[in-house]
Design a protein that fits this description.
The protein has 3 domains: 123 residues, 3-Layer(aba) Sandwich (Rossmann fold); 99 residues, NadA-like (Rossmann fold), CATH 3.40.50.10800; 78 residues, 3-Layer(aba) Sandwich (Rossmann fold), CATH 3.40.50.10800. Helix 1 packs across helix 2, helix 2 packs parallel to helix 14 and helix 5 packs across helix 15. It is globular, with a radius of gyration of 21 Å. The chain has a 5-stranded parallel β-sheet with strand order 6-5-7-9-8, with helices on both faces. It is of the alpha/beta class and 343 residues long. It starts with a helix and ends with a helix. Helices cover 43% and strands 14% of the residues. The structure holds 1,3-dihydroxyacetonephosphate and iron/sulfur cluster (SF4). Iron/sulfur cluster binds next to loops.
């Protein structure tokens, strides 16, 4: 597609969301990226949280963490450029060690991934010997390497249910763990609750950790009540990284792609998305006939690091290459591969 054609396409989708002069500038950049992508035999994977102009111009595949992990495992291209945060690019490298994996911004982290270390997991495994460890994909490779199986928001319940009646350690997202506990009927505890005499009497099937997503932690039940007052017919969708009370007060909870599919199929006149706000822009662009409400102050600062400018530089200069040394990579790969077979 030429820059003129791409600009026309972006204008058709985003003219009510992004100013025209910015669309022109971004169409030029995206055209250079797409040309270089072909020359270098690269594939671009874009998470659903990418800003609208990037999301609608350069990814060969857009999706949630689970969908993008699958694409990373399947690609036959030489280079994977991951427009997402570091743990996602690392997961791509874990699954495709022979490919060059590039992340456009070195700083694109995640508060959940920062919340736990491999040493923390080893300590938990000593304390709960033989208890399987399920780890959310929003973690770094060393933590995945200590785990039995990974999960994403798209298959967390299915992964925990695959252990039937067994007790499971679920790391590191406290809210996701509590949401999964409610859906699976398991009773969750946190290690500190088991200290002291009374701790031995507690019945539990899930052991959690206190990691949180700094973005989804911002949504409250009061936000939901206020919006329901103003729009009584609103349908509220919450990502499972939201507080369990927020999820319980919502009408639907699912991964970012599950939320997108829900909006596409619902006939509700208004939808409120309790998730990162660029995704709201992307859904509006794809569903112009729907009225989407969103709380726009809530942008993930880490996803926001990924820009078209840096993606072009990534392809031009081969930066920033993601490496996961052995044996961490192969140990982490076992947990991630197992996740891909479930749900
Ligand atoms: P999804 O797997 O639902 O896309 O979520 C990833 C994420 O980081 C949400 O904050
Ligand atoms: Fe991490 Fe939350 Fe950002 Fe997702 S939205 S990448 S969980 S900080």
């Amino acid at each position: 597609m030429s820059a003129t054609e791409l600009y026309a396409d972006l204008k058709r989708k985003l003219s009510t969301i992004v100013p025209d002069f910015e669309l022109q500038y971004k169409a030029e950049l995206a055209t250079q990226i797409n040309r270089l992508k072909q020359e270098k035999n690269a594939v671009i994977l874009g998470h659903n949280y990418m800003e609208p102009a990037l999301y609608h111009s350069i990814p060969d595949h857009a999706g949630d963490s689970l969908e993008l992990s699958r694409k990373a495992a399947q690609t036959d291209k030489d280079i994977i450029v991951f427009c997402g945060v570091r743990f996602m690019a690392e997961t791509a490298k874990i699954l495709s060690p022979d490919k060059t994996v590039l992340i456009p911004a070195e700083k694109a982290g995640c508060s959940l991934a920062e919340s736990i270390t491999a040493e923390d997991v080893r300590t938990l495994k000593k304390r709960f010997p033989g208890v399987p460890v399920v780890t959310y994909v929003n973690t770094y490779a060393e933590v995945k390497a200590e785990s039995d199986v990974c999960c994403t928001s798209g298959n967390a319940v299915a992964v925990v249910e695959s252990f039937a009646d067994e007790t499971v350690i679920f790391l590191p997202d406290e809210y996701l763990a509590r949401n999964v506990a409610r859906e699976t009927g398991k009773h969750i505890v946190f290690p500190a609750q088991l200290n002291g005499e009374n701790g031995t009497d507690i019945d539990y099937q899930l052991v959690g950790w206190h990691g949180k997503c700094e973005v989804h932690d911002k949504f409250t039940v009061a936000d939901i009540s206020n919006v329901r007052k103003q729009f009584p017919d609103v349908v509220i969708l919450a990502h499972p990284e939201c507080h369990p009370d927020v999820v319980a007060a919502s009408d639907f909870s699912g991964s970012t792609s599950a939320m997108i599919r829900y909006v596409e199929q619902t006939s509700a006149p208004h939808c409120l998305l309790l998730t990162e706000c660029s995704m709201g822009d992307n859904i509006i662009a794809a569903n112009p006939q729907k009225e989407i409400l969103r709380l726009c102050s809530v942008r993930c600062p880490h996803m926001n690091e990924i820009t078209l400018e840096d993606t072009l530089a990534a392809l031009q200069h081969g930066k920033y290459a993601v490496e996961v040394p052995e044996p961490v990579r192969s140990k982490a790969a076992r947990a991630v591969q197992r996740m891909l077979t479930i749900g």
